[in-house]
Design a protein that fits this description.
Strand content: 5-15%
Order of helices and strands: EHEHEHEHEHEHHH
Shape: globular
CATH class of the largest domain: Alpha Beta
Distance between the termini: 15 Å
CATH architecture of the largest domain: 3-Layer(aba) Sandwich
CATH superfamily of the largest domain: Glycogen Phosphorylase B
Structural class: alpha/beta
Largest sheet: 4 strands, parallel
Number of domains: 2
């Protein structure tokens, strides 16, 4: 049996953490200690020189383009790299995500509203959790077979920005971001969990 479970997440974000602690996932045996040491996300491009932006340490071209856009005016769709720097840019006002958990944590920490558009595997389950439990995203409107029309993203993004349906989600975004920051502060839940993890190694 595992001697412990390390999770890169914030306990308050995930109902599954409580289920694991309550022994619901291992009904016939003891549950290993659970250490929620997150949310830990990349600070940007990993320090790679010239990642996408020319020689040396030049700023990537996409960030230079964002510098010229109005604040909060860009909806970002990405299934690849250099995501954190874009999410934390002031021009980014929304994020179409495939619901991978790293993407979710990065957007929560950057306090960027999300449109959930899962592709496969656990991503569809993540979407349900993001939309219904965490309330940090709205679902992409998909037609039969998973097709998305020209109004698919706009229909999901509109209520968040302008309509009454978006106010609760905006509040949830702010609360989640504040909780994520608090977890990483001195004495926060992430640091406490990490200290407990290190102590368990010392005892072993």
């Amino acid at each position: 049996m595992a001697s412990g479970i390390i999770m890169n997440t914030l306990e308050k974000l995930e109902e599954a953490v409580k289920a694991i602690r309550d022994g619901k996932c291992v009904p016939d045996g003891p549950t290993p200690p659970l250490y929620c040491i997150g949310p830990l996300v990349s600070s940007g491009d990993g320090g790679k020189a010239g990642s996408g932006g020319g020689p040396g340490n030049d700023k990537p071209e996409c960030l230079t383009w964002l510098d010229s856009q109005p604040r909060g005016s860009v909806v970002f769709l990405s299934f690849g790299s250099l995501r954190v720097a874009v999410l934390n840019h002031g021009a980014t006002g929304g994020f179409v995500t495939h619901c991978g958990w790293n993407s979710v944590l990065e957007a929560v920490c950057a306090r960027v509203p999300m449109i959930a558009w899962p592709l496969y595997a656990e991503q569809r389950q993540n979407r349900v959790f993001m939309v219904e439990a965490m309330r940090v995203a709205l679902p992409m409107e998909e037609a039969a077979g998973g097709a998305v029309g020209e109004r698919g993203g706009g229909g999901a993004a509109g209520p968040r920005a302008d309509g009454p349906g978006g106010q609760g989600h905006q509040g949830a975004d702010a609360a989640s971001q504040a909780e994520a920051q608090a977890a990483l502060n001195p004495g926060g839940s992430a640091q406490v969990a990490l200290a407990e993890l290190v102590q368990s190694w010392n005892i072993a």
